Each structure stands twice: as structure tokens, then as C-alpha cells.
Amino acid sequence: MFPFRDFTLKVYSPASKKEAPIVLLRDSENKIKWAVYAVGQGKTQVASLKFSDYRTVFDTTVRGSVDWTYGHEATW
Question: 42: domain range?
Fold first, then answer.
């Protein structure tokens, strides 16, 4: 779980290696704003996501890391 401003991002691990993690955004009232499958491009597989930091300049940007078919990379 990653809290930022009035929101919380939560990552649900995949149930199997054939599935992708689910990322869920909740507001301050604990209402779900959106949820997405964290899939890669083409025939790639996302194994895990972790959020670590955020910044607010013109808009809010959340930074993290992703483990996927091609290794471990940063994500925004």
C-alpha cells in the first residue's frame, strides 16, 4: 500500500504466473477510483510493482519499480 496526498495505491499480486498484478487507486473516503491490470507490451509478463515516491509539480507523479520480462526497471 502506498499513500500519497488524499489517495492510496495498492498492488495485488497475481494469483498465478499467467496473470498480471492489479493496481487499485482509492480516495480519502476509501472509494475505488480505478483499478487496472499491470500488463506489459506484446507478449511480456509483469511479475511485480512497487511504488516508492511521488512528487507534485504541475500534476502528481508516482515513482516506483517494476519486475517484468526484461528485468527490473523504474516506472512513473
Answer: 2-75
